[in-house]
Design brief:
heterodimer, A: alpha+beta, Porin, two-stranded antiparallel ribbon, 22% helix, B: mainly beta, 4-stranded mixed beta sheet, 1 helix, 10 strands, elongated
Chain lengths: 252, 160
């Protein structure tokens, strides 16, 4: 199982490198176009309308990892507002499931369950009209889900081991927080690609009388404190923001 | 600006890849998978004889081996309850200066299978309901914390 995980991670690293290089190339192309249009120092004073844009997207990292053989994964849809090119409130929801047959014989099944997440990001480059954003922020997540545990055995070095037993279906409610940051880069028209890295921790694990959760939809495996996302978003500018941008272009 | 963005992209990618490398490190099981009932043997009468050491056997244990042999730590004993049954009878041998006195202490409890995590697997937790004893040396027992888990806490006291 460990070998399988390592191979998954190696593949994911290759994917990361590939996507990074493509994003970087797109980034350079965008920058070149941008430099032709405006002088960089002058752009510092750009006025951004309050409701600048709205984006919908998804995180591809988890579904891709699951497709590569990971024993758990989730899919989500996120919606994000761009306020003054500075604040980015975000709401997302999705569903995830997990199934594992561990080396110690324990089998755990987590059927598909929904999760919900909300948060706020801050664009550190809000004064610049760059083709991308460097962001940091915080998110809160919640999921209510069920799990089944089979073949539990208790062993100590004095009494005989117990016979394998199954637990009745366990119901968990978990809450967590994520703090992190990353980048989003405009690649083509309204299409944005981006990486985010989050440090996450469970505010409430939701352990039952018989079990700690193994996999939490939206959070991942219990005990893993890092979350890496690869976001694809389509950004729609509001009419007022479009006019503002047109005026900026005319000024220069 | 272009250099600035490129540096950010490069730095960020290094962080991402480093985190993935860290994720590959399998820590294994780092917590106790055994639930010990922890307790102490206290002197309730200042004039009673002092215990030099004591040994503990689990009655009905297949190998008939001692759980504790000539232990001198009266304040911190850890015993293993039988997860296959709802009671465990333990024979205590108290070694004094001149002689040895035996008592049987029986713990009655409910068992609870518990899944810890994928690396450690599962264990059994116990909820102690009653402690009975013979009265050759032990005069009383007390349940301090009935829940026996893999976290260390005092569960019982034996008085002599």
């Amino acid at each position: 199982m460990r070998r399988k995980l390592i191979s998954n991670y190696i593949i994911s690293i290759l994917l990361l490198l590939f996507a990074f290089s493509s994003v970087s190339a797109q980034q350079q192309e965008q920058e070149a176009k941008f430099v032709e249009v405006v002088n960089e120092e002058k752009v510092d004073s750009i006025h951004h309308s309050f409701f600048k844009s709205f984006a919908i997207g998804t995180n591809l990292a988890s579904p891709v990892m699951k497709a590569l053989g990971q024993d758990h994964g989730d899919f989500e849809i996120l919606a994000e507002l761009n306020l003054m090119n500075r604040f980015f409130p975000e709401l997302s929801f999705g569903a995830g499931d997990g199934h594992v047959f561990a080396d110690n014989g324990i089998r755990i099944d987590v059927p598909y369950a929904f999760f919900y997440r909300g948060g706020l990001h801050y664009n550190f480059l809000h004064k610049k009209d760059t083709p991308g954003w460097v962001m940091g922020g915080i998110r809160y997540g919640f999921s209510s889900y069920k799990s089944t545990f089979q073949n539990l055995v208790s062993t100590d070095d004095y009494w005989p081991s117990t016979s394998p037993t199954d637990l009745p279906e366990q119901k968990f409610n978990s809450h967590w927080l994520e703090v992190g940051g990353g980048i989003r880069v405009k690649c083509y028209k309204g299409l944005f690609l981006g990486w985010m890295v989050y440090y996450k921790w469970l505010v409430k694990q939701g352990a039952t009388q018989n079990a700690n959760p193994w996999y939490i939809p939206g959070y991942g495996v219990n005990g893993n404190n890092f979350n890496i996302t690869f976001n694809v978003l389509y950004n729609i500018e509001f009419k007022k923001a479009k006019e503002d941008n047109k005026n900026i272009q005319l000024r220069y | 600006m272009g250099k600035f963005i490129r540096n950010i992209l490069t730095g960020f990618s290094v962080v991402v890849i480093s985190l993935l490398m860290v994720s590959c490190d399998d820590e294994g099981c780092i917590e106790s998978v055994v639930s010990y009932a922890a307790g102490s043997i206290d002197n309730s009468d200042a004039e009673s004889a002092s215990v030099n050491s004591f040994s503990v056997w689990g009655i009905g244990q297949e190998k008939d081996s001692a759980m504790l042999t000539n232990s001198t730590s009266l304040s911190g004993i850890e015993i293993l309850l039988n997860p296959n049954d709802d009671y465990t009878a333990l024979k205590f041998n108290f070694n004094m200066a001149r002689d040895t006195i035996s008592d049987t202490v029986t713990f009655y409890y409910k068992t609870r299978d518990y899944f810890l995590n994928i690396d450690c697997g599962s264990t059994t937790f116990f909820d102690i309901e009653t402690i009975l004893h013979t009265g050759h040396f032990i005069t009383d027992t007390e349940i301090i914390n009935p829940e026996v888990t893999n976290e260390k806490k005092i569960n019982f006291k034996l008085y002599y």
